[in-house]
Structure formats: structure tokens, C-alpha cells
Amino acid sequence: MLSFVLQRLLQSVVVVFVLSIVLFVGVWLIGNPADILISSEASEADRLAAITALGLDKPLWQQYLIFLGNAVQGDWGTSFVYKEPVTSILLQRLPASLELGLVAFIIAIAVSVPAGLYAGLKPESPLGRGVMAFSLIGVSIPTFWQGMLLIVAFGIALPILPVGDRGQVATHFGITTSLWTLDGWSHVVMPAFSLALLKMSLLMRVTRAATMEISRLDFVKFAYAKGVRGRKVVVRHILRNALVPLITVTGIELANLLAYGVITETVFSWPGLGKLLINSIKVLDRPLIVAQLTYTALLFIFINFIVDILHMSIDPRVKSVLRRAA
Amino acid sequence: MTEPFFQVDGLNTWFFTRQGVIKSVRDISFDLRRGEVLGIVGESGSGKSVTGMSIMGQIDEPGRIVSGSISLDGQELTALTFEEMRRYRGRKIAMVFQNPLMTLNPLMRVRDQMYEAISEHEDVSHREMHDRCIEVLKAVGIPSPEERLNAYPHEMSGGMRQRVVIATALLLGPDMIIADEPTTALDVTIQAQIIYHIRRQIDERGLGMIWITHDLSTLSELADRIMVMYAGATMEIGTTEDIIGSSRHPYTRKLLDSVPSRNTPGEKLRQIPGNMPSLLSLEKGCPFASRCERATEICSEPVPATQLSATHRIWCYHPFEG
Predict the structure, then answer these.
(1) What are B178's strand-pairing partners?
(2) Residue A3 to chain B, least CA–CA distance (Å)
(3) B41 lies in which domain range?
(4) Residue B94 lies in a domain
(5) In chain A, whose CA is at the least distance from the CA of B55?
(6) Confidence band, pLDDT 50/70/90 cuts, at residue A172
């Protein structure tokens, strides 16, 4: 177990390192921030001074090494636009994105797993077909459009939910989030549902497919043949085995929710990372872009790590494979 | 000979699909005595597995038992509720499946899967469950049963897993076991060992056994009586000698001819020409008629049973002479 964690950690460092090079070159290719940030009316001397101040006069490899040296020490640079350390900007925005993503995730799981399980056990039943119809609609409607529909329905036509912004936040146990207040919840629930809809529909399908596949297997028939009660067969044998593929997909979807809420955050003017990323790309705020994408990469690495741990705890075959590999 | 304790009479199990009604099992009747192995032999789609699942009450939608009676010790099983039938499964009738690699849940320890078979029926201590598991594991010839109990299925070979499955079936001392191709997926030496242990358990415990297979050569060693099925219907039923030695049915003869060991080396394997008719469009007559060399017009009429001897019954208008 420990060797697995260490191995993973080492792998992650390599991944992040390689990724940082790709990011750096990629962002450099997009364009020169000096052209955007410096007014065209500025004198040539001012222009050069500004370029030197931003460190853009040095060759790319030097810029990268400086960035790397600082990043290792925890300094991810200063935003070209906000003139603030990138880390503090990210930390300001992070809670909003995390709370939106997590609430959306919980909604998606709470609905999709039971619904998908039911639809997989009784695919021919009216409710089972209904679940499939719902998920088809869910994956088909564009996120921005259903978001706007929700705003029209629950924000305007039937004004029971506030639209835009996070609402009141509070701080408990050192965590500042809108989830501590009722007002905050009223703000988060609609964008979270909107964000959850696509994932919910996807996970429903995955759960249903896994359930149907596993129900046909001999060990399920054997469990019934032993006289095991139906509910226990479903929980112990079918659901538990369905969790194996489900956890993989769920992990990727959770990372997506936490990292790419761009559309939903824009539609609901949610002050999270998604909007920030779009804005930083528009103005070529290199440090902010690099920091955000690195955060995203770390998030995926971390969640994949958790997924592997969960797999190991559920599936003994995975454990023995990893033990042999380590 | 003892009286049969288990009877199937006029069983019809049909599947109501969108394409039409699939009559997987049509008018099947047989019985079983204690200490007896009844082999059910047939090709894929002959209805032999559906017969087994019908007895277990495990026919899934859109299938159901349309008519007929299944009775164990005078108790009509088709009349039981789902919960009553659950209490019969594993306790009175156990079942063993074909592929030992798939019959055990890969995520659960052998112990939990065996314990579950007991605890769903009886309220006994862990100590006692443990002792009972060890006892049946030993009975099917599993070395170091304590270790096996702790193992996960993937840590054992196919033959070892199938023994675990058979041991699980024996746990509650059932009256009968239905085995659906239990040795087909195993290699021949393992097959022989498992058959040896099963035969011993049948004799020691006075079990009744239904052995479903497509392999006549295994049955000739193990079965007391054999029922030959084709396209959901019984073709012939009799003692192993009746069927293997003196079969009168054209289909059974063809089936026997196609057993590789009966062919001369170097000669082409003998197949039965043609395919099984679609179960969706069965006529009232003999389903084998279209592939049968002896078929005449009368074969499209419903075929009555002919009692050839006290043990031997046949469904054919043109049987071979005895």
C-alpha cells in the first residue's frame, strides 16, 4: 500500500513536470501578452520597460526555469492583469467552484445510481424506460440552454430561486462557503442542478448498463439459487460489482465538475474558476492560465489516485495486480 | 427401486418476446429418485437449461411457466409464492452452473459466499457455519479448506472453484441438485475428479441429481437414466443402458454417432445435417422431422409417447427396431 502511494506520487510529479512544459510552450504559442496588455499609444521606452518588468524579454527557456524555480517554492507568479499573486486569486475563486461542483456531484450521484440500478434491474418496466428517456434528454440538451431554461422557469416565471452570484457566505471550521447559509443554498441549488444534469444522465446510463450486464452473470443466478433474498442479491452481488466501472467514470466526471464548470458558471454568473479561466485566456494572462491548468491537472491526478484506492478496496483482483507490480 | 420424490409433469416454459412466443420447453415430464442421477442431454437451445431454471423458479421475464406441475415430496413448487420458493432454493434444491469462473462473485471471499448460503435459511453461529463449510469442502476433496475459505475466487483454479460451488450446493443437505454442464468448462482429468466426488456424495447422502449436458460420454459414466431433448421436447427417456446401448430414436442415434470417440480415427466426424428449427415457428409434429432420414408425412402430426419397456419411452413414429 505504501509503496503504491509512493509510486503514484512519483508518477504524479513527472506528469505535472511534463505538463508544465507543454503548458508553457502552449501558452507562449497563443500570442504575446505584451501586444494586449500594453497600450498601443505607449512610447517604445515604456513598452520595453513593461516587457522587462513582466520578464517577457528573456528567452522562453529562461522564463520557464524562472517560473519553475519560483513554483517549486510556492510562488506561481503574479497575474499580469490583477497584479496580485496568482495563488491568492485562485484561493479566492476556488471555494465557489468547489461548492458548486460538489453539490452538483452529490445531486448527480444521488439521482443517477438508484435510477440507473432500477432501470438496469427492470429495463422493460415503464419507470425503467422513463429513466432512459430522461437520460437521453439530459445528454442531448446543451448545458447553456437548459441553464437558461432553469433561470426562466425558477428565477423569473416562478421566482422561487435567486439568480446569479453565490449569496451569503459564512465561515465555520476555517472554511468559507455559501453552503453554511440557507441563502447560499438557495443560490447554489439551481446552478448545481444545471451542472449535474449532464453527468446525472451519463451516470444513469453507465449504472444501467453495468447492472444489466452483471445481472446476467452466473454468480447472480447462483446467488438466487442459494436462496439469497432479492434485495441482498442486488446490493451484495449486483451493485457491488457495478461499482467497479461506475467508480472509474464517476471519478472522471467529478474532476470534470470541479474543473470545467465554465459554461454553467458563465450562465449563472457564478464567481468561480471557470469564468476566471475564460477571462485569463482572453487577455493572455499567462501566469493565471498556467496556474489554473496546473490546478486542473493536479485535481485529475488526485481524483484518479482516489479512484485507484477505491478500486483496491472493492476489488481484490486489483489489489493483487498492484501488489505484484509494486 | 424407491418411489420418485420429485416429479415434473407436462411442463411448458415459454418466453413471450416481441418477435413471438418462444416455446423453450414443451410438455416435459420426468421424475427422480433418491440416489439417482438423471441426465438431460441435448444441443444448445434444446430447452435443457430452461428446464433446470424452471425447477428453480428462476425463469426471468419475459419467460414463464405456462403450464405443468413440478412437485417435490408432494409439494407443488409452481404454486409457491416467490418468498416460499426462495426458502426452497439452496435448502431443498441446489443448483450448480456451467462456468466455475463466473459462478462465484469475484469481489467476495469464498467464506462470505458460503456463509450467505446458510445464513439466508438458518440462524446459526459463525462457529457452526465455519464447521459446516469445512466439512463440505473436505467432502468434495479440497485440500487445506481453511485457506480456501479465506481466499477470493481469482486465487483459485477453475477446478477448485467448481468444487467450492458444489460444496456450497451441498451445504444445507438438499434433496436434489441440478447441475447445468458443471464440468464442461474443465479439462478432462479435473472433470473426472469432480465426477468422482459428486457420485460419492450422491451415494452417501441419497441425493437426487439432474445433470444437464450436451456431452453423452460423460453421462454414460455417471447417469442412471437419460432424457434426450430436442427443440424443447423430449425425444426419448430411459435408463442409461436403454439410451446408450439400445436407443431406438433416430435423433438419439445421430447424437450417439456424433460422439468423437465412436468414430474411426482419420474418418470425418459425423454431424447431423441441418439446423434445429426456430423455436418461434414450431409445428405440432416432430421437431426433428426436417433433419430426419426416416421422416414421412405422418411426422407432421403430434407425436404420442410409446412405452417400449417399463423404463424406456420414446416419441417417434418411425423408431428403429429393437
Answers:
(1) B95, B210
(2) 22
(3) 1-80+208-263+270-322
(4) no
(5) A225
(6) low
